[in-house]
Amino acid sequence: GPAHLFRLAGKCFSFVESTYKYEFCPFHNVTQHEQTFRWNAYSGILGIWHEWEIENNTFVGMWMREGDSCETKSRQTKVHLVCGKSNKLAYVSEPSTCVYSLTFETPLVCHPHSLLVYPTLTEALQRKWDEAEQLLYDELITDQGYKKILKEIFEEAGLLKATEEKEVDNKKISLEFETVEKCNKEYKQLSKEIKRLQDLLSQHGIAYKGISGE
Predict the structure, then answer these.
(1) How far is CA 193 from CA 74, 185, 187, in A?
(2) CA-CA distances (angstroms) from residue 198 to 85, 185, 195, 203?
(3) Domain interval for residue 16
(4) Longest dimension (CA), the chain
(5) How large is the average pLDDT for residues 117-127?
(6) What is the CATH number of the domain that holds 21?
(7) Alpha carbon distance 192, 197 (integer Å)
């Protein structure tokens, strides 16, 4: 991520709301401590530093995942970085069960370019991104194909954790076409297959309902 944010590493920032104290340690974890005299007061981890959330060439947040278990899943937290006069944890909420939202203010993100992704990449990955932009501009890849290339770039840069593709019956099922060329090729093959099946039905005298105009 942005090198100027690394100076936050090793520091922790706390925020107290009613009986809870939240502590955010950038690039490390987020914890919550219940400040009561109950014998079973909760104290635990709401997430461990995992990956960035990226939108429109901008680092929009930090994901802290794989915290303490909560029913069937693990607690996780998204930290929003906003411009502020000093480094401080400003707001905490729980928009959905066991998914927390933290707002962290820091002067380190006040510059309009401070959270841009492209400058943090190596020259090789910047070239790969430039090529993808050109392919999209020339309409040689779809928007979906472009997003897939960007995701690969971010994973290679270590900004995102690589997600394993889900397999159905051990076969990868993909209904996405990254390029118009691939889509056309696939369409021709399917058209041939339909023609072959239609001929087969005709040979056996089986009536089928064709689509008009095809």
Answers:
(1) 46, 13, 10
(2) 71, 20, 5, 9
(3) 3-116
(4) 83
(5) 94
(6) 2.70.130.10
(7) 9
